[in-house]
């Protein structure tokens, strides 16, 4: 294994004695062997990473990716998804369980765990709450937890049965695992295509009103307050949702949440040309919602930013808008999207909390550390570097992204993981 020398990089790691210091980092045989102001280059071949504005943090974690394995490997598989994640700066991902078959029993979790051992990143499976994510019968959650499932979610199929959800919350609290709910009242959001508002009216498309998200969120928060069980809300997208979670946290409820990166960058005006690459769930909302999401990140209401990487093949995406599938790839463009959306609103230290520390702490995973003697688990990035994303160079199997030839400021330089 070739040694790697990172020159003059600002270290962002609150656990490290070198936090916010500029240092050289030498990685030998996969181990951080030396951190100092000036590490001498060794005689044997060494890869040198240097630049004027380098930052280094422990490896990032994406809390929501869809790798479509098993069942839909033609869109993405564990290998291609992991390579795209590594290129995007992630050394770990949480893999959603709405595959075919779903990750709803011990055997399916073991399949992901075993198949992931040879991958270049760490893949943590999220089992489904219900059998086949159909919202009827609870899955084998305890058995899955024992095998390595870090949480449970029916992904974009929110649990609309309140009794089923409260039983699942109580059950998983007994073995210290969380339910992830992506709130959306299906009776209100049914057949909706984009955010309900001026743009949906102009385009003649059925809207997904903000209240669809907010009603389910209010119901679930009531259940959490009644039972004092923890929950994580995924894909928060409206101003009122942010306000509801902020109030819940003020009450001391054990609640956390995340936002999808693209929902911080684009509002629903991006859909004016009927480009299905912008068709995502939750939908792109209004500028007012975006501002509330950003404020939620700043004040700690929103804990995590994730990519919601959702690969789709051409057959399902390049078609009439109202029958095209929801979803966008997001791993390789993640940091560029986040920096484009937030600019200097958040410091790199604040950002790392949302994409490295919180995703792991919320789900009880070890947070990697930059210190001598530790295995390398590192993301090297440059907040000032500009680059253009070329979809033909993507490592993902799918190309459902609006970012082809999009110019970003903020680039991942290198991702290093020793497993």
Q: What about the largest sheet?
A: 8 strands, parallel
Helical stretch count?
A: 13
What is the CATH H-level superfamily of the largest domain? Metal-dependent hydrolases
User: Quick one: overall form?
Assistant: globular
What is the radius of gyration computed over CA atoms, rounded to a whole number of angstroms? 21 Å
The separation of the N and C termini measures: 13 Å
CATH architecture of the largest domain: Alpha-Beta Barrel
CATH hierarchy, class of the largest domain: Alpha Beta
Any idea how many domains? 2
Give the strand line-up of the largest sheet: 6-7-8-9-10-13-14-15
Mean pLDDT: 97
Describe the structure.
The protein is an alpha/beta fold. The protein folds into 2 domains: 3-55 and 371-417, Roll (Urease, subunit C, domain 1); 59-362, TIM Barrel (Alpha-Beta Barrel), CATH 3.20.20.140. It has helices at 78-87, 106-116, 141-147, 162-173, 186-189, 198-203, 210-227, 239-250, 262-265, 287-298, 314-317, 334-342, 348-362, and strands at residues 3-11, 22-28, 31-36, 46-49, 55-58, 60-65, 90-95, 122-127, 151-153, 178-181, 194-195, 207-208, 231-233, 255-260, 304-306, 377-388, 407-417. The mean pLDDT is 97.
